[in-house]
Amino acid sequence: MELWYSEPHTKDVKFSIKVNKQLYSAQSEFQRIDVFESAEFGRFLTLDGYMMLTEKDEFIYHEMLVHVPMAVHPNAKHILVIGAGDGGILRELAHYDTIEHIDLVEIDAQVIEVCKQYLPQTACGFADSRVHIHIADGLKYVRHAENQYDLIIVDSTDPFGPGEGLFTKEFYGNCYSALKADGIMVNQHESPFYAEDRLAMQRAHKRIVESFPISRVYQAHIPTYPSGHWLFGFASKHYHPINDQQAERFKRLNIPTKYYNHQLHVGAFCLPNYVEELLADVEA
Amino acid sequence: MQQLVTMQHKAPLYEALMDFKKQRIVPFDVPGHKRGRGNPELAAFLGEHALAVDVNSMKPLDNLCHPVSVIKEAEEIAAQAFGAHAAFFMVGGTTSAVQAMVFSTTKQGDEIILPRNVHRSVLNALVLNGAIPVYVNPEANEELGIALGMSIAQLERAITEHPNAKAVFVNNPTYYGICSDLKGIVDVAHKAGMKVLADEAHGTHFYFGKNMPMTAMNAGADMAAVSMHKSGGSLTQSSFLLMGPDMNADYVRQVVNLTQTTSASYLLMASLDLSRRNLALNGHAIFEQVVDYTNYVRNELHTIGGYYVFGRDLINGDSVYDLDPTKLSIHTLNVGLAGIEVYDILRDDYDIQIEFGDLGNILAYLSVGDRERDIERLVGALADIKRRFERSKKGMLTQEYIEPLVAISPQQAFYAQKELVPLQAAVGRTCGEFVMCYPPGIPILGPGEVVTNAIVNYIAYAKEKGCQLTGTEDLHVEKLNVVKEGV
């Protein structure tokens, strides 16, 4: 017998992982949640059938969303994390003693519970006393905050389904006003490769450029996401992602990373020509 | 009551269509696409299921022009659901239902009493049948810049001045959700021997929600046009015509058949049947949800500040007798933006399409199909718009009500010899066509009305603010068709 998990990456491309067994499957108020176990990628979580994380490659995604902005902002104390019910972002943030307060806003409480139970490697930062969990719609939550955060990390699902509102101008605009005068927002920015993802990526970039004075995009290689080539957004009111990088400070912190380092920080912002063109298309 | 509930579980037309589909009848009749096989592209676009039931009237599926079986039964169940004496499926939009109301109660030269803020379909009907409009001066809310409902005193005055009028036409509610004292209007009109026709294009849910404003049928009105496709969830262009006990429904059907297609779409009719069943069975819960959404947005926007969401505080016992609790009408002038500007910003910057924006207000249409996350997007966008654009409201104009001066009947004017003259030169002349302003779709000028300076200025201002002006022969609305003099 062979059991496979498959996700269509486009109408004509399918990505499959051989599964040993299914550990969990349920329909929450918002989405279908599944956890599988596989030989190649370890355990992995899918929402509505879309790959969210695998034990084998989640470090790439989480390190890149946390350490890039944290190595730029000289003094990030108040952090807002949106989405991220799997806890991977919290695990990486826990390395920074200087952080005083973390608000985590996840719409689906069941995702947190499932991750705590089945994905302990990732969901290990919830007990930190600085972490405050809010089960709420991210768009609504951020609307009520003003001049409050140094850093907002948007760890959203794809721009269809419950994560839809986190790719909109109203969301980015409200993030802008929730940030302090030198605040930074980073976000999951989709992939430039396949046509549908590319459109979502361009739309997100257009909306962010309209909302923030500094808006750059950086990349990483994530094997289990469509095309494996993934982008992140770095939007900022004041700090430049490269000119203001504090490489020495980051090195002194001695954070054990598997993907991120201070040189890769710079390299990640160097994008392929076709991606630069896609971004330039919507910047005008 | 038990029997009532059992009836509403049925959807006779829909069920007949499903049975018909199972029989796999070989079609040697129209439509020529033959269950979609003759037009694969269309079948792929709309789905084979839809095209399989896009059929012609036939014995097992009845005939809308002369219903004797499943359509008749479906219409009877619908009548029961609406508390009407009779109900007709309409496939030409609520426009066709409005026409049927006007044609059934007035003929050439008859007067009909109506408020100015009627839908254009009413005035079009007058062009066709030659009835003469008597406008009831609507009261206005100066601050919001909108026309309100019909006040009883104004109606009584119109009736005294025009005692021979045949019918009174009333909106229940207006586009903005404002309801008149329908029961009072029916009493006054009936006492004067006039029929009452209600445009309930925006009032479907009054029949199915809990604690809703008075419905036309409940108030004793003689006819009502109900846009099932608006708040009721049926397909666009499908609608209901309702009749009270004093109407001869069989005569009304003859009137309807004067202009109605003989190839009524079964897709539209089945959507009426299914939507009626859904609302009859689940309406309370559905519209409770919509009202909750509206109240939620009202509270959120009032917390954000700047915006005013129409609410029960507007009720004054007469021209605002009641308010549609599902309607999300938002006054934007205090944010320093015209409604039409917010409407455009929402679409261009936020990918949110709302129903309309006029000079001072926007209307977001909430219904059975809304989701919480979309409601959050709307609130989030309005908050962001306020943050980005907020400015003083100085220099903002609100809508004014311009009282129409009717010189000749709409029909006479429309069919008269006319000439195109520049706007300014038209002042003082009798207009030969419609000038509509979208939003909000209320006529600025109708055929037979005198063009005034105030009207010409208003047209210029509306153009400048980005309103869409329609109805005229000249698409740029620089010239106006006026009735030739001395012919």
Explain the layout of strands and helices.
The complex is a heterodimer of chains A (284) and B (487).
Chain A: E1 4-10, E2 13-27, E3 32-38, E4 42-47, E5 50-54, H1 58-70, E6 78-83, H2 88-93, E7 101-106, H3 109-118, E8 131-135, H4 138-143, E9 149-155, H5 169-178, E10 179-188, H6 195-211, E11 214-221, E12 229-236, H7 247-253, H8 262-268, H9 273-283
Parallel strand pairs in A: 6-7, 6-9, 7-8, 9-10
Antiparallel strand pairs in A: 1-2, 2-3, 3-4, 4-5, 10-12, 11-12
Helix pairs in contact in A: 5-6, 6-9
Chain B: H1 2-8, H2 12-22, H3 40-46, H4 48-52, H5 70-82, E1 86-90, H6 93-105, E2 111-115, H7 120-129, E3 132-136, E4 140-141, E5 146-147, H8 152-161, E6 167-171, E7 178-179, H9 182-191, E8 195-200, H10 216-219, E9 223-226, H11 228-231, E10 239-243, H12 249-259, H13 266-304, E11 308-309, E12 322-323, E13 328-331, H14 339-350, E14 356-357, E15 361-364, H15 372-389, H16 410-415, E16 418-422, E17 435-438, E18 442-445, H17 453-464, E19 468-470, E20 479-483
Parallel strand pairs in B: 2-3, 2-6, 6-8, 8-9
Antiparallel strand pairs in B: 1-10, 4-5, 7-12, 9-10, 11-13, 13-15, 14-15, 16-20, 17-18, 17-19
Helix pairs in contact in B: 2-13, 5-13, 6-7, 6-12, 8-9, 13-15, 14-15
Can you offer a commentary on this structure?
The complex is a heterodimer of chains A (284) and B (487). Chain A is an alpha/beta fold. Chain A folds into two domains: 4-54, Spermidine Synthase, Chain: A, domain 2 (Roll); 58-283, Rossmann fold. Chain A has helices at 58-70, 88-93, 109-118, 138-143, 169-178, 195-211, 247-253, 262-268, 273-283; strands spanning 4-10, 13-27, 32-38, 42-47, 50-54, 78-83, 101-106, 131-135, 149-155, 179-188, 214-221, 229-236. In chain A, a hairpin with a 3-residue loop joins strand 3 (32-38) and strand 4 (42-47). In chain A, helix 5 crosses helix 6 and helix 6 packs across helix 9 (273-283). The longest helix of chain A has 17 residues, at 195-211. The termini of chain A are far apart. With 487 residues, chain B is α+β, with helices and mostly antiparallel strands. Chain B folds into three domains: 2-280, Aspartate Aminotransferase, domain 2 (3-Layer(aba) Sandwich); 283-389, Aspartate Aminotransferase, domain 1, CATH 3.90.1150.10; 410-483, Molybdopterin biosynthesis moea protein, domain 2 (Alpha-Beta Complex), CATH 3.90.105.10. Chain B is built from 17 helices and 20 strands. A seven-stranded mixed β-sheet of chain B has the order 1-10-9-8-6-2-3, sandwiched between helices. A four-stranded antiparallel β-sheet of chain B has the order 11-13-15-14. In chain B, helix 2 crosses helix 13, helix 6 packs across helix 7 and helix 8 (152-161) packs parallel to helix 9 (182-191). The termini of chain B are far apart. The mean pLDDT of chain B is 92. The A-B interface holds A 137, 139-140, 143, 162, 164-165, 168-171, 173-174, 177, 210 and B 349-351, 372-373, 376-377, 379-381, 383-384, 387-388.
